[in-house]
Amino acid sequence: MSENVHFWKDIVRYLQDRLDEQEIGRYLRPLQATWEDDALLLLGPNRFVVEHVKTHYLPLIEQALQQLQGLTEIPIRIAVGSHEGHQEQVQEHEAGKHVPPGNMKNPQNGLTPGFIFESFVEGKSNQVALAAAKAVGSRPGTMYNPLCIYGGVGLGKTHLMHGIGHYIMDHDQSAYVTYRHSEGFVADMVRALRQNRMDEFKATHRKVNALLVDDIQFLAGKERSQEEFFNTFNSLLESGRQLVITCDRYPQEVKGIEERLRSRFDSGLTIAIDPPDFETRAAIISKKAELLQVELPDDVIYFIARRIRSNVRELEGAMRRVVATAQFLGHAIDLDFTKATLKDLIASHNRMISIDDIQKVVSEYYKIRINDMLSSSRTRRLSRPRQLAMALAKELTNCSLPDIGRHFGGRDHTTVLHACRTIDNLRMEDKTVEEDYRLLVRRLRDLN
What we know:
alpha/beta, about 10% strand
């Protein structure tokens, strides 16, 4: 006999201060908790979530149980399933014990409930990607297939991908949608090979209406996984099924990905998400505070939005830190309190290298004017420093290729990619270029 665990939400809130929001949303919020046979039973939507929680988060959950409820040495079990449905693949959390996963039939979709289009904050940096995601969701398999969304960490790629899945299923109850992280795809394939069940593995991934694969850069260097992914890719496209992928960079620049896969990615629509601008950052903070049912003064919202510029994940983390600290101390949230709470984080961000820093240091090093370096001139005296500056921007900042191109006279991402590849080759062939590059990196890091 089982009963719901009333304090599970408190445990998730406790863990929010120790994990980033994407981890919470992807792995912990989907869990359902219940008591069963004097053990805490956690029910996850799919094997990947269950495996990840078992490997990475159980010690934190045990700590939360002790801190919040005074419970120690409570057995914790994990299963794929829900309160309403049949449970599969129960996995005991015991020292030295590992129960092999169950069969691969009837996989859960793996979608995070809160990642829908309505909760996504639109801005200039992501409006094209959002429009493309909505178009794919409304007409899967017919528009922009495959759709590839790329950009740095914490910018909303996974949110949009899940939004597509939810939209498809909301408008077609018979649709079969599956979300997979690329590492989960590889783990399942290896398991299927070991258990001689590749036919089931192939059938599982090829019968879906939409396959959503996150962080495909993790397929780099895994030749057998790439081969199976390529075959799955072809099977889905040929049958009019939708494929959506995300990557942390422009897919063409991921080393270790086979050319035939890169070519397939280019056959659809590849679109970038850039770091949010100030207005979008402020809107995101307001939205997240509203979801937490917390009122933040405008000057606090604007302060956080101006000082935290890297990505949505860090922005939300900063806001949550302010809210949690205020709750712990019983202190009102005002601007002075926010500045004191985020002092170390702001100092860290102030030390971040910008593209402006890179352009200034490179132009001084080569004794040229910044405006000349940004011009359309292709003379060797200007083009080589320009290429070096672009390559440094790619390595030392979180900016996407299109964003770097805009900072260099409005050039497109292919020009930036060509510059980065040129410098990579020259560094291997020419010791002078390698020495220049290393010296410039040191000077830029010494700025901070």
